[in-house]
């Protein structure tokens, strides 16, 4: 189904005009991905439309299924293709589902999806925690926290503002670390020897204020996915409380629930 409730027929690779440039240095799978992105942008492929199978594209282009499979994996990681076992692929919304069943840092999650993460530090200071942060981190009176605010990018596009609060007694000297080139989870585990164990999240939605909209290249008032997360180490000590604001047009929460018998 399309967004307006009307059925959208499946398109074939031949109808879509998919072609490959054998003389290009760009790998075949990237050429396929680029063309599918362009077709979606031009509204020739719409959300809910049934897409070609790997075999259809491979036969039309005269190549093996391997580069087509790589292209499908990339499109799936970007939320542009929905693939279910035993069914034909369907064009997605472009919102990447975030799986909360696995404890992964932002960089780990993006690399797992075949994307390129990066970060820019917007602020790093030592401060008194507010009540919510103090309770989440179970801080003693007068304890301070480092506040680390970063702008996160995927494939050089800004997608999230993440503010992390870290107990100063645990992460003394963290300002000396290069927090744009290193994953924060890597710093936790490799530099400070705090092995991660589990996290609890609270997920909601907010409207972008002017500051967030500006750095995320979004419109003021546009929807943002709000994630508040407390991360614990293997000693069950809370070592990070973070507040993440992700562009709602690019990310969606993905949680699997199991009914207990």
Quantity of strands, as a count: 10
Quickly count the helices. 8
Straight-line N-to-C gap: 35 Å
Low-confidence stretches: 1-9
The CATH class assignment of the largest domain is Alpha Beta
* Tally of domains: 2
Specify the helix fraction band.
25-40%
Strand order of the largest sheet: 4-5-6-9-8-7
CATH topology value of the largest domain: Chorismate lyase
Mean model confidence by pLDDT: 83
Tell me about the largest β-sheet: 6 strands, antiparallel
Query: In angstroms, what is the radius of gyration?
Result: 21 Å
**Can you write the helix and strand succession as a string?**
HHHHEEEHEHEEHEHEEE
Q: Which structural class should the secondary elements be placed in?
A: alpha+beta
SS strand fraction: 25-35%
Give an overview in words.
Helix content is 26%, strand content 30%. With 261 residues, the protein is α+β, with helices and mostly antiparallel strands. It has two domains: 13-91, Orthogonal Bundle (Arc Repressor Mutant, subunit A), CATH 1.10.10; 96-254, Chorismate lyase (3-Layer(aba) Sandwich). It has a six-stranded antiparallel β-sheet. Strands 1-2 form a two-stranded antiparallel ribbon. A two-stranded parallel sheet has the order 3-10. Helix 2 (28-41) crosses helix 4 (65-77) and helix 3 (54-61) packs across helix 4. The chain is elongated. The protein starts with 12 loop residues before the first helix and ends in a 7-residue tail after the last strand.
């Amino acid at each position: 189904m399309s967004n307006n409730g009307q059925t959208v027929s499946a398109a074939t690779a031949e109808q879509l005009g998919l072609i490959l440039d054998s003389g290009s240095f760009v790998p075949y799978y990237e050429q396929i991905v680029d063309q599918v992105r362009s077709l979606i942008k031009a509204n020739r492929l719409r959300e809910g439309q049934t897409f070609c199978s790997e075999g259809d594209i491979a036969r039309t282009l005269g190549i093996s299924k391997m580069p087509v499979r790589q292209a499908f994996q990339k499109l799936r990681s970007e939320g542009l293709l929905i693939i279910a076992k035993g069914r034909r692929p369907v064009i997605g919304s472009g919102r990447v589902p975030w799986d909360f069943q696995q404890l992964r840092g932002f960089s780990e999650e993006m690399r797992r999806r075949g994307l390129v993460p990066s970060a820019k530090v917007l602020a790093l200071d030592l401060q008194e925690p507010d009540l919510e942060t103090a309770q989440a981190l179970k801080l003693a009176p007068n304890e301070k926290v480092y506040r680390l605010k970063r702008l996160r990018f995927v494939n050089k596009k800004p997608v999230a503002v993440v503010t992390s609060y870290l107990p100063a007694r645990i992460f003394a000297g963290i300002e000396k670390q290069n927090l744009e080139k290193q994953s924060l989870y890597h710093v936790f585990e490799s530099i400070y020897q705090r092995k991660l164990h589990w996290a609890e999240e609270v997920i909601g939605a907010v409207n972008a204020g002017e500051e967030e909209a500006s750095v995320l290249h979004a419109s003021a008032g546009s929807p943002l996915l709000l994630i508040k997360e407390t991360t614990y180490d293997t000693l069950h000590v809370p070592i990070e409380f973070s507040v993440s604001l992700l562009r709602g047009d690019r990310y969606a929460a993905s949680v699997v629930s199991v009914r207990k018998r």
